[in-house]
Structure to design on (180 residues):
């Protein structure tokens, strides 16, 4: 199956999936972050559609003094991360994604990444723009980066079709399991 067909299938499945027992549990994720990088600079995403919501996680990380940044797609189609706090307005970009006003660029030590599908080998199928893969490739030439994907269990497939530019995650968290 082609990546584009797979995306449509999994996104439809995700949109119809209901998490049992209320919220996504970020307790294990918080523990991994606390013993991971010494840097408190973290790049997250602002959830859209049926993506796993990061709002509670963001609130929790702020109480622990993490510097929260969100991605911005630049004019050259590269992705950068800019600091975001509750007082920073968000603008909707051409892809329908909320982005912070570009005040302070951040070099995150950890990325929390949305995904469309994943497999046991920590391969990630994204939305098809390659923004995260290009960012990771460029960033990791200078500095190591902890890459964490967030998904629902219904997004797991047997094998994600990958190419030479696709980047694996270090962890993938679902509502009921941690893949590492």
């Amino acid at each position: 199956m082609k990546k584009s067909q797979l995306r449509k299938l999994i996104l439809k499945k995700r949109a119809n999936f209901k998490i049992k027992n209320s919220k996504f549990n970020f307790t294990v994720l918080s523990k991994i972050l606390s013993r991971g990088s010494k840097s408190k600079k973290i790049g997250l995403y602002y959830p859209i559609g049926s993506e796993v919501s990061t709002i509670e996680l963001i609130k929790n990380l702020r109480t622990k003094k993490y510097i929260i940044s969100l991605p911005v797609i630049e004019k050259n189609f590269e992705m950068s991360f800019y600091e975001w706090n509750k007082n920073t307005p968000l603008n909707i970009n051409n892809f329908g994604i909320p982005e912070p006003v570009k005040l302070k660029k951040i070099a995150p030590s950890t990325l929390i990444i949305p995904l469309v599908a994943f497999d046991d080998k920590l391969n990630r199928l994204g939305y098809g723009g390659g923004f995260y893969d290009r960012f990771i490739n460029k960033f990791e030439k200078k500095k190591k980066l902890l890459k964490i994907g967030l998904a629902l269990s219904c997004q797991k497939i047997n094998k994600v079709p990958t190419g030479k530019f696709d980047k694996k995650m270090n962890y993938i968290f679902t509502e009921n399991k941690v893949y590492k």
Q: What stands out?
A: The chain has a mean pLDDT of 91.
